[in-house]
Design goal:
Layout lengths: L7 E7 L7 H19 L2 E4 L3 E2 L3 E10 L2 E10 L2 H8 L3 H17 L2 H8 L1 H32 L2 H17 L7 H16 L3 H20 L4 E7 L2 H15 L9 E7 L3 H5 L5 H11 L4 E8 L23 E5 L1 H4 L2 H7 L3 H6 L13 H6 L4 H6 L25 H10 L12
Parallel strand pairs: 1-5, 1-6, 6-7, 7-8, 8-9
Antiparallel strand pairs: 2-4, 3-4, 4-5
Helix pairs in contact: 3-7, 4-5, 5-6, 5-7, 8-9, 9-11
């Protein structure tokens, strides 16, 4: 582990299938950053967000007693794409969702899920099983009324009315519509590029290449959470097409897939374009890829290699399995452990406890993503209880404004490095 401190970092964040607007994403980031400060005894301040049609931008300055890191954070937007899909009526959604189910089933994707991770196969089936149960209830109710009224037509009307009522409640409480939209999007993404989303990924790729050529940042970190990991691979592949030597300059380029559902797309027989992108990114010589998985997260592929296990010949990412339980206060974990969405979002949330995986250490901390991933305990042994970087003397990495103030009062000292934890 090199433990070379990062002074400037550029982050491209691609979230999962979540319609949260950029203002809500920024608010969550700031709220969770407070937990990061408390847990690691550091200071972090985020500037106001600037929102454009393509992304939400803000900067973060995080520091400890002997380090200071400035992060330019860019959340690539596709919330409006998700929101537009959510506006479709259930009369369109249900047939399209059933078509997606048939497509993923016939294409072999579902059988791939069963082989790779049965929990994810259950996640795939969840909305369709519930939809079938609601449909059966509507039919049973309609049949009962038909017998009672002695009229098949009345029974059909009642069954239709019950279907509509059940799709409004409890279907929405059970997130059936959201999950159907997710699978509809996944099918459409496999079958062809989304014009708006494709344009945004291309712009982000051009921006990434420009930043890498400029060399202003010490590290460029692309983070893909959930389905956003697939989009992050798309972004990096576009960047490699622009600059095949991406990452070979002064600026490191790293990719983190967290709570990832890359095999969700890649195991579909028709996803040839996407699998080719995975292969190019995996084999890019100067791009480091780290993958984090958790057993209790049913929305990720636990103990699945997103390269080898989808039939691609290439370099596997460094894969780490982590425990969500180890990141949270015991009382908090007991409260949220059955909330699958909340557990899934821990990958982009602040930790209550110091753990091997910490989202804010990756995006705002002093060590590179590669250094953190390659260390089995992340930064746990590299950050002291007071928030200082353990292997760095105070005088060598003092923030510029503090160093200036110190030199004005007395000569700078050169203390020996301390390795005490």
């Amino acid at each position: 582990m090199r433990e070379l401190p990062i002074k400037k970092r550029l982050v491209f964040q691609l979230g999962g299938y979540d319609p949260k607007p950029p203002e809500a994403v920024y608010s969550r980031f700031v709220r969770e950053m407070r937990r990061f400060e408390t847990t690691w005894k550091v200071t972090a301040r985020a500037a106001e967000a600037e929102v454009t049609p393509d992304a939400a931008h803000w900067t973060v300055v995080a520091s400890g007693p002997n380090w200071r890191t400035e992060t330019a954070y860019r959340a690539v937007r596709w919330d409006d794409v998700i929101t537009d899909s959510a506006r479709r009526s259930d009369w369109c959604r249900v047939p399209a969702g059933l078509l997606a189910f048939a497509d993923f089933f016939v294409s072999g994707a579902f059988w791939g899920y069963l082989r790779a991770n049965w929990r994810y196969a259950g996640f795939f089936l969840y909305p369709y099983v519930l939809l079938s149960v609601l449909g059966a209830l509507a039919l049973i109710g309609g049949a009962a009324i038909a017998r009672f009224a002695g009229s098949a037509l009345v029974g059909m009307v009642v069954a239709a009315a019950l279907s509509i009522a059940l799709l409004q409640w409890p279907a929405r409480r059970l997130f059936i519509q959201d999950l159907l939209d997710d699978w509809i999007f996944a099918r459409n993404y496999i079958r062809g590029e989304h014009s708006v989303l494709g344009s945004r990924l291309q712009k982000a790729a051009e921006s990434l290449c420009e930043a890498a050529r400029g060399g202003d940042a010490d590290e460029i970190l692309v983070v893909g959470h959930s389905l956003g990991a697939a989009l992050a691979i798309d972004l990096l592949d576009r960047a490699l097409l622009i600059d095949p030597k991406l990452g070979e300059g002064r600026t490191r380029v790293s990719f983190l897939s967290i709570g990832s559902s890359v095999p969700k797309i890649a195991l579909h027989r028709a996803a040839t374009r996407f699998r080719a992108a995975v292969e190019r990114v995996a084999n890019a010589p100067a791009i480091f890829w780290g993958e984090y998985q958790a057993l209790t997260d049913v929305m990720n592929f636990y103990k699945v290699d997103p390269v080898i296990d989808i039939g691609i010949k290439g370099k596997s990412p460094v894969i780490r399995q982590v425990r969500v339980k180890a990141m949270l206060d015991p009382a908090v974990y007991r409260r949220v452990k059955r909330n699958f969405y909340r557990v899934h979002c821990q990958f982009v949330s602040g930790n209550d406890r110091r753990a091997a995986y910490d989202y804010f250490m990756f995006t705002c901390g002093p060590l590179s993503a590669e250094d953190q991933v390659r260390s089995p305990d992340g930064v746990v042994t590299s950050i002291r209880p007071d928030g200082a970087l353990a292997n760095l003397p105070l005088a060598e990495w003092r923030a510029p404004e503090l160093r200036t103030a110190r030199s004005a009062t007395k000569p700078a000292s050169n203390p020996r490095p301390s390795h005490r934890q």
